[in-house]
TrEMBL record:
<protein>
    <recommendedName>
        <fullName>HTH-type transcriptional regulator BetI</fullName>
    </recommendedName>
</protein>
<keyword id="KW-0804">Transcription</keyword>
<keyword id="KW-0678">Repressor</keyword>
<feature type="DNA-binding region" description="H-T-H motif">
    <location>
        <begin position="31"/>
        <end position="50"/>
    </location>
</feature>
<dbReference type="InterPro" id="IPR050109">
    <property type="entry name" value="HTH-type_TetR-like_transc_reg"/>
</dbReference>
<feature type="domain" description="HTH tetR-type">
    <location>
        <begin position="8"/>
        <end position="68"/>
    </location>
</feature>
<dbReference type="InterPro" id="IPR039538">
    <property type="entry name" value="BetI_C"/>
</dbReference>
<keyword id="KW-0805">Transcription regulation</keyword>
<dbReference type="Pfam" id="PF13977">
    <property type="entry name" value="TetR_C_6"/>
</dbReference>
<dbReference type="InterPro" id="IPR023772">
    <property type="entry name" value="DNA-bd_HTH_TetR-type_CS"/>
</dbReference>
<comment type="function">
    <text>Repressor involved in the biosynthesis of the osmoprotectant glycine betaine. It represses transcription of the choline transporter BetT and the genes of BetAB involved in the synthesis of glycine betaine.</text>
</comment>
<dbReference type="InterPro" id="IPR001647">
    <property type="entry name" value="HTH_TetR"/>
</dbReference>
<comment type="pathway">
    <text>Amine and polyamine biosynthesis; betaine biosynthesis via choline pathway [regulation].</text>
</comment>
<dbReference type="Pfam" id="PF00440">
    <property type="entry name" value="TetR_N"/>
</dbReference>
<dbReference type="InterPro" id="IPR017757">
    <property type="entry name" value="Tscrpt_rep_BetI"/>
</dbReference>
<comment type="function">
    <text>Repressor involved in choline regulation of the bet genes.</text>
</comment>
<dbReference type="InterPro" id="IPR009057">
    <property type="entry name" value="Homeodomain-like_sf"/>
</dbReference>
Amino acid sequence: MPKVGMPDIRKPQLVNATMTVIERVGLQSASIALISEEAGVSTGIINHYFGGKHGLLEETMRSILRAHGKTVTNALSSLPASAHKQRILAIVAANFEGQQANNKVAKTWLAFWSYSMHDNQLQRLQRVNEQRLLSHLLIELKALFSNSQAHHIAQAIAALIDGLWLRAALNPDGLSAQQSQLIIKHYLETQLQALHTQH
């Protein structure tokens, strides 16, 4: 976490510089010297406010998570509470549109996923993000399916989001948001159709 007193204007500047450098040279080569040069600040400022590269990476991920959370919240706020299918699709769309579809953000996420396997704090952030996604999905799915079915489908949708997002992030052509969302929409509609057939 950045220390108290970090100028607000500096935080997004340093976060953006971190993502730019990660996109250009990868996480391992993204040194404090390169990031500070990209941001136009001294290495001392980064070390003082963030305690080094790890602290800056953590703040970068928190920033992306905050922006993503706002995207989801805004998407849901525009839909009626009873529009469960539309709300599920809005949650899905939020993972493939806006900032999340930015190639720079995608590469930072990819680096974060890899790095978090060996870092407890970053792993905790990843778990928080995963639980938040599942929680949003379960609220809507439980209104349509039994409790056990809702949990199963939520896990499947989350796995589809992660898998499609990962494949898209590794694709040189970037993120195919529309195709990814169509695949998940088809899965959801298949589950809804199966539910209606049972009844």
